UniProtKB/TrEMBL annotation, chain A:
SUPFAM superfamilies: Thiamin diphosphate-binding fold (THDP-binding), TK C-terminal domain-like. CDD domains: TPP_PYR_DXS_TK_like (cd07033). This is Transketolase. The keyword GTP-binding does not apply. Residues 10-175 form the Transketolase-like pyrimidine-binding domain.
Automatic annotation (TrEMBL), chain B:
Keywords: Thiamine pyrophosphate. Belongs to the transketolase family. PANTHER family: TRANSKETOLASE N-TERMINAL SECTION-RELATED. The keyword Ligase does not apply. Its cofactor is thiamine diphosphate. This is Transketolase. Residues 12-270 form the Transketolase N-terminal domain. CDD domains: TPP_TK.
Length: 318, 281
């Protein structure tokens, strides 16, 4: 097992804030919009340095999505910022008609996704957003795993023309990817090569997959760990190549098991290379109040759950 | 003026012929609101909008129009065709399989003149504000025009947008309301009363003007006055009284023709009331 260490923890939303600020410097067409959550989305640096290109919408997310769509018509590249719940479910029809169907170059940037939002509870903890967004034709869906990857993803979507959903979170998590990484939309990152079982993880679950890989190595199980940061378009080739070698797969995501990354992989395997799969995901449930760590444990999203899923799927392997 | 009032009225009559023929041709669509807005749309496209001959999505250097109540697509398609955005003959493909003239307007089929999909109601004003902000960022002094149904104002997103536009002094925007008092299930005052739209918009910080949307002279006067109000710190609302189905006697003023196509006999009766002026497609 390849050794991963970290010296610092940071929230992925700060990676977005840094990436947005850099995007603003690089391209004068970048416009940032927020719905009364400038601080939470870490948009202060952008707002301070480019006040003419920062739009405070107020608590009106539907209007924000529409305004973003309209800005593209004048050649602007709008980045909208609010919590993942208010970025997707609340404004689904606005995104569907004014952004996705109209093929507008809007970047929907969503913080506080998943259970790790913590104490605010289930009203704010969306676990369905990946599913909602990936079902929209033409929508790119990205869920980076740490500060550096989120910053890199934010800059990568600046250069991509078309609608994007970028999902990140609130808690401080280890920074273990390279600061100068090249982020390619739709390309998996091979975290660790192995032969016994494929573990595919996205977002905050990638570090947990690394922890699980270390525990599995102690048990004599050689896990291949792949980071899928782009859920749509999915890197079919990387996943198939891995499963053709290992013969089984565990998918890990901070999302409902329905509609998430795991189901996209299951569709791929069912049509191209049938193989046993286990899902480490929320079991069709809403969340609740608690600390992020408590919630990840209660809802079965810890490294130990990945270890157990790997052991289970290995038993089903032919 | 590029055209006389009489010329514009004649064009509007042809547009009305197009509308009833299109809706009859596919036996679906929304003739009532389309007919009611034929005068406004004719005035806007033939006389008021500065628009380039070649369509480009960004609309740099030209006025832009957004139709929020997308179901009145027949009237928009007719004026777009008759001002040269595409061949008039293409009107015959309305709502047919593979057509660029979809039931509700869309960019997906790349129809020149359309910059955003509309149909799911209440989204157009937000989009228009975004386009207006882009014009300001680009230091352009062109104007954004929109059209909305009155029933459509029951959608809450409008009021988010109305609040935003005045707070942010979006003063390069002229929104018009097709104030016909009808919606699918009946009169708006019975379904969900709009109360005084003038008082509401004024309370939200807009400059409100009123006009008769079925009187060409009054429409032009209103739009030219509205234009003179741009750049003065307030968004502008043209509260335009219309009659649903205007121009076809058996359709006038009734919500029953919101989304119903005429049969062969009704088509003949309608066309007998509307003299062809620019030749049918």
């Amino acid at each position: 097992m390849k050794k991963y260490t970290y010296t610092e923890k940071k929230d992925t939303r700060s990676g977005f804030g840094a990436g947005l600020h850099e995007a603003g410097k690089r391209n004068e067409n970048v416009v940032a919009l927020c719905a009364d959550l400038k601080g939470s989305l870490k948009m202060d640096d952008f707002a301070n340095d480019f006040p003419d290109r920062f739009v405070q919408i107020g608590i009106a997310e539907a209007n924000m999505i529409g305004i973003a769509a309209g800005l593209t018509i004048g050649g602007k590249i709008p980045f909208t910022g609010t919590f993942a719940n208010f970025s997707t479910g609340r404004v689904y029809d606005q995104i569907r008609q004014s952004v996705a169907y109209s093929n507008k170059n809007v970047k929907i940037c969503a913080s506080h996704a998943g259970l790790t939002l913590g104490e605010d509870g289930a009203t704010h903890q969306i676990l369905e957003d990946i599913g909602l967004m990936k079902m929209l034709p033409g929508m790119v869906v990205i869920n980076p795993c740490d500060y550096n990857q989120t910053k890199a993803a934010t800059l990568a979507i600046l250069d991509y023309v078309g609608p994007v959903y970028l999902r990140f979170g609130r808690p401080s998590v280890p920074i273990f990817t390279a600061e100068d990484q090249k982020f390619e939309i739709g390309k998996a990152w091979m975290v660790n090569e192995g032969t016994d079982v494929t573990i595919v993880a996205t977002g905050h679950m990638v570090w947990k997959a690394i922890e699980a890989g270390e525990k599995l190595a102690e048990l004599g199980i050689d896990a291949e760990i792949i980071n899928i940061h782009t859920i749509k378009p999915l890197d079919d080739e990387a996943i198939l190549k891995s499963v053709q070698k290992t013969g089984c797969l565990v998918s890990c995501e901070e999302h409902n098991k329905f509609g998430g990354l795991g189901e996209s992989i299951a569709r791929l395997l069912a049509t191209e290379f049938p193989a046993p799969q286990e899902f480490v995901a929320v079991n069709d449930s809403f969340g609740e109040s608690g600390t992020p760590d408590q919630l990840m444990t209660k809802y079965g999203l810890d490294a130990i759950n990945i270890v157990e899923a790997a052991q289970k799927v290995l038993k089903r392997k032919k | 003026m590029k055209h006389t009032i009489k010329e514009l009225e004649d064009i509007a009559t042809q547009v009305r012929r197009d509308i009833v023929r299109m809706v009859h041709g596919c036996q679906s669509g929304h003739p009532g609101g389309s007919l009611g807005c034929a005068d406004f749309m004719t005035a806007l496209y033939f006389e008021v909008l500065t628009h380039n001959a070649d369509f480009n999505m960004d609309g740099t250097g030209e006025d832009l129009f957004f139709l929020s109540n997308g179901h009145i697509s027949p009237v928009w398609y007719s004026v777009l065709a008759r001002t040269g955005y595409f061949e008039v003959a293409e009107l015959a493909t309305f709502r047919k399989l593979g057509a660029r003239l979809q039931g509700h307007p869309t960019t997906h089929e790349h129809l020149p003149g359309v910059r955003i999909a509309s149909g799911s109601l209440g989204q157009g004003l937000s989009v228009a504000i975004g386009a207006a902000l882009a014009k300001k960022l680009n230091k352009e002094h062109t104007t954004i025009y929109t059209l909305h149904g009155d029933g459509e104002l029951q959608e809450g997103q409008n009021w988010e947008a109305i609040m935003f536009a005045s707070h942010n002094k979006v003063d390069n925007l002229i929104a018009s309301i097709d104030y016909n008092g009808q919606q699918i299930d009946g009169p708006t005052e019975k379904i969900l009363s709009l109360e005084s739209l003038q008082a509401k918009f004024e309370a939200f910080g807009w400059h409100v003007i009123t006009s008769d949307g079925n009187n060409m002279e009054d429409i032009l006067k209103a739009l030219h006055y509205a234009k003179s109000l741009t750049g003065k710190g307030k968004p502008i609302l043209n509260l335009m009284s219309t009659q649903m189905g205007f121009g076809v006697d058996y359709m006038v003023g009734s919500h029953k023709w919101h989304g119903t196509a005429p049969n062969d006999q009704q088509l003949e009766s309608a066309l007998n009331q509307l003299t062809s002026t620019l030749a049918d497609y």
